[in-house]
Amino acid sequence: MFRRAVCPGSFDPIHNGHLDIIERASRLYDVVHVAVLVNPSKKGMFSVDERVSMIEEITAGYGNVKVESHQGLLVDYCRDRDIPAIVKGLRAVSDFDYELQMAQMNYGLSGVETLFVPTNPTYSFQSSSLIKEVAVLGGDVSHLVPDLVLRRLTERIAERRAQPTNP
Ligand code: PNS
Questions:
Q1: What number is the average pLDDT over the span 156-163?
Q2: Residues 77 and 112: beta-carbon distance below 8 Å
Q3: 17 in ligand 1 pocket by Cβ < 6 Å?
Protein backbone atom coordinates (compact mmCIF):
# COMPACT_ATOMS: atom_id res chain seq x y z
CA MET A 1 0.00 0.00 0.00
CA PHE A 2 1.51 3.33 -1.10
CA ARG A 3 1.64 6.17 1.40
CA ARG A 4 0.08 9.10 -0.42
CA ALA A 5 -0.20 12.82 0.29
CA VAL A 6 -1.38 15.85 -1.63
CA CYS A 7 0.18 19.31 -1.88
CA PRO A 8 -2.72 21.52 -3.02
CA GLY A 9 -2.64 25.11 -4.21
CA SER A 10 -3.36 27.62 -6.92
CA PHE A 11 0.27 27.61 -8.12
CA ASP A 12 -0.16 30.71 -10.31
CA PRO A 13 2.75 30.19 -10.79
CA ILE A 14 4.71 27.68 -8.71
CA HIS A 15 7.66 29.29 -6.87
CA ASN A 16 10.70 28.05 -4.94
CA GLY A 17 8.80 28.02 -1.64
CA HIS A 18 6.17 25.65 -3.10
CA LEU A 19 8.87 23.51 -4.62
CA ASP A 20 10.69 23.19 -1.30
CA ILE A 21 7.51 21.83 0.34
CA ILE A 22 6.79 19.44 -2.56
CA GLU A 23 10.37 18.15 -2.49
CA ARG A 24 10.28 17.59 1.27
CA ALA A 25 6.89 15.84 1.01
CA SER A 26 8.29 13.64 -1.77
CA ARG A 27 10.93 12.37 0.68
CA LEU A 28 8.29 11.53 3.30
CA TYR A 29 5.66 9.84 1.10
CA ASP A 30 5.72 7.19 -1.61
CA VAL A 31 3.53 9.27 -3.91
CA VAL A 32 2.93 13.02 -3.72
CA HIS A 33 0.02 14.43 -5.68
CA VAL A 34 0.29 18.09 -6.59
CA ALA A 35 -3.28 19.31 -7.06
CA VAL A 36 -3.77 22.56 -8.95
CA LEU A 37 -7.16 23.70 -7.68
CA VAL A 38 -9.34 25.51 -10.16
CA ASN A 39 -11.04 28.63 -8.88
CA PRO A 40 -13.49 29.63 -11.66
CA SER A 41 -14.02 33.10 -10.17
CA LYS A 42 -10.30 33.96 -10.29
CA LYS A 43 -8.58 34.71 -13.58
CA GLY A 44 -4.95 33.79 -13.15
CA MET A 45 -1.86 34.88 -15.05
CA PHE A 46 -1.49 31.27 -16.28
CA SER A 47 -4.20 28.85 -17.34
CA VAL A 48 -4.63 25.77 -15.17
CA ASP A 49 -3.15 23.60 -17.95
CA GLU A 50 -0.11 25.87 -18.17
CA ARG A 51 0.41 25.62 -14.40
CA VAL A 52 0.10 21.83 -14.48
CA SER A 53 2.57 21.50 -17.33
CA MET A 54 5.14 23.80 -15.66
CA ILE A 55 4.93 21.82 -12.40
CA GLU A 56 5.19 18.52 -14.28
CA GLU A 57 8.34 19.65 -16.01
CA ILE A 58 9.91 21.07 -12.85
CA THR A 59 9.15 18.06 -10.63
CA ALA A 60 9.86 15.35 -13.25
CA GLY A 61 13.18 14.51 -11.58
CA TYR A 62 11.60 13.60 -8.24
CA GLY A 63 10.13 10.41 -9.64
CA ASN A 64 7.15 10.16 -7.27
CA VAL A 65 5.21 13.37 -7.98
CA LYS A 66 1.94 13.31 -9.91
CA VAL A 67 0.44 16.60 -11.04
CA GLU A 68 -3.26 17.10 -11.76
CA SER A 69 -5.85 19.84 -11.79
CA HIS A 70 -9.08 19.61 -9.85
CA GLN A 71 -12.26 21.64 -9.77
CA GLY A 72 -14.27 21.29 -6.58
CA LEU A 73 -13.54 20.35 -3.01
CA LEU A 74 -10.06 19.22 -2.07
CA VAL A 75 -11.53 16.51 0.16
CA ASP A 76 -13.31 15.01 -2.89
CA TYR A 77 -9.98 14.88 -4.73
CA CYS A 78 -8.48 13.09 -1.71
CA ARG A 79 -11.39 10.65 -1.37
CA ASP A 80 -11.33 9.69 -5.07
CA ARG A 81 -7.61 8.84 -4.86
CA ASP A 82 -7.41 7.38 -1.35
CA ILE A 83 -5.19 10.19 -0.12
CA PRO A 84 -5.26 10.45 3.70
CA ALA A 85 -3.01 13.51 4.16
CA ILE A 86 -2.73 17.09 2.93
CA VAL A 87 0.73 18.68 3.25
CA LYS A 88 0.86 22.47 3.54
CA GLY A 89 3.74 24.87 4.11
CA LEU A 90 3.42 27.45 6.87
CA ARG A 91 5.39 30.59 6.12
CA ALA A 92 4.55 32.64 9.19
CA VAL A 93 2.08 32.94 12.05
CA SER A 94 -0.11 35.03 9.74
CA ASP A 95 -0.73 31.92 7.61
CA PHE A 96 -1.82 29.90 10.60
CA ASP A 97 -5.36 31.20 11.25
CA TYR A 98 -6.67 30.47 7.76
CA GLU A 99 -4.73 27.24 7.35
CA LEU A 100 -6.06 25.99 10.69
CA GLN A 101 -9.64 26.79 9.61
CA MET A 102 -9.18 24.90 6.34
CA ALA A 103 -7.50 21.95 8.09
CA GLN A 104 -10.34 21.69 10.62
CA MET A 105 -12.99 22.03 7.91
CA ASN A 106 -11.34 19.36 5.74
CA TYR A 107 -10.96 17.01 8.70
CA GLY A 108 -14.59 17.60 9.70
CA LEU A 109 -15.82 16.96 6.15
CA SER A 110 -13.91 13.78 5.50
CA GLY A 111 -11.36 12.84 8.18
CA VAL A 112 -8.44 13.79 5.93
CA GLU A 113 -5.48 14.99 8.01
CA THR A 114 -3.45 18.13 7.33
CA LEU A 115 0.27 18.18 8.10
CA PHE A 116 2.02 21.54 8.32
CA VAL A 117 5.64 21.84 7.26
CA PRO A 118 7.46 24.97 8.38
CA THR A 119 8.65 26.82 5.28
CA ASN A 120 12.39 27.12 4.90
CA PRO A 121 13.14 30.69 6.18
CA THR A 122 14.78 31.47 2.81
CA TYR A 123 11.30 31.31 1.27
CA SER A 124 9.14 32.63 4.08
CA PHE A 125 8.28 35.92 2.34
CA GLN A 126 7.39 34.36 -0.99
CA SER A 127 3.93 34.34 -2.51
CA SER A 128 2.84 33.92 -6.12
CA SER A 129 0.92 37.20 -6.06
CA LEU A 130 3.89 39.24 -4.77
CA ILE A 131 6.22 37.57 -7.27
CA LYS A 132 3.83 38.46 -10.14
CA GLU A 133 3.49 42.04 -8.91
CA VAL A 134 7.25 42.52 -8.69
CA ALA A 135 7.84 40.87 -12.07
CA VAL A 136 5.16 42.97 -13.81
CA LEU A 137 6.76 46.12 -12.40
CA GLY A 138 10.18 45.11 -13.72
CA GLY A 139 11.75 43.71 -10.51
CA ASP A 140 14.12 40.78 -10.47
CA VAL A 141 12.44 37.56 -9.32
CA SER A 142 15.04 35.18 -10.75
CA HIS A 143 16.04 33.95 -7.27
CA LEU A 144 12.41 33.21 -6.32
CA VAL A 145 11.19 30.93 -9.11
CA PRO A 146 12.57 28.03 -11.16
CA ASP A 147 14.17 29.02 -14.49
CA LEU A 148 11.26 27.63 -16.50
CA VAL A 149 8.78 29.78 -14.55
CA LEU A 150 10.98 32.84 -14.97
CA ARG A 151 10.98 32.32 -18.75
CA ARG A 152 7.19 31.82 -18.86
CA LEU A 153 6.59 34.83 -16.61
CA THR A 154 8.79 37.03 -18.79
CA GLU A 155 7.00 35.82 -21.94
CA ARG A 156 3.53 36.32 -20.44
CA ILE A 157 4.33 39.85 -19.26
CA ALA A 158 5.72 40.72 -22.71
CA GLU A 159 2.58 39.27 -24.40
CA ARG A 160 0.35 41.34 -22.14
CA ARG A 161 2.34 44.50 -22.80
CA ALA A 162 2.01 43.92 -26.55
CA GLN A 163 -1.77 43.62 -26.32
CA PRO A 164 -3.75 46.79 -27.04
CA THR A 165 -5.36 48.04 -23.83
CA ASN A 166 -9.12 48.23 -23.52
CA PRO A 167 -10.66 51.68 -23.91
O1 PNS B 1 -2.39 28.43 -3.15
P2 PNS B 1 -3.62 28.79 -2.39
O3 PNS B 1 -4.53 29.67 -3.24
O4 PNS B 1 -3.32 29.39 -1.05
O5 PNS B 1 -4.40 27.41 -2.11
C6 PNS B 1 -5.65 27.38 -1.47
C7 PNS B 1 -6.37 26.08 -1.82
C8 PNS B 1 -6.51 25.99 -3.34
C9 PNS B 1 -5.54 24.91 -1.33
C10 PNS B 1 -7.75 26.09 -1.14
O11 PNS B 1 -8.44 27.24 -1.52
C12 PNS B 1 -8.56 24.86 -1.50
O13 PNS B 1 -8.36 23.80 -0.94
N14 PNS B 1 -9.49 25.01 -2.49
C15 PNS B 1 -10.28 23.90 -2.99
C16 PNS B 1 -11.78 24.07 -2.65
C17 PNS B 1 -12.04 23.60 -1.23
O18 PNS B 1 -11.85 22.44 -0.92
N19 PNS B 1 -12.48 24.56 -0.40
C20 PNS B 1 -12.74 24.31 1.00
C21 PNS B 1 -11.46 24.51 1.82
S22 PNS B 1 -11.71 24.13 3.50
A1: 94
A2: no
A3: no
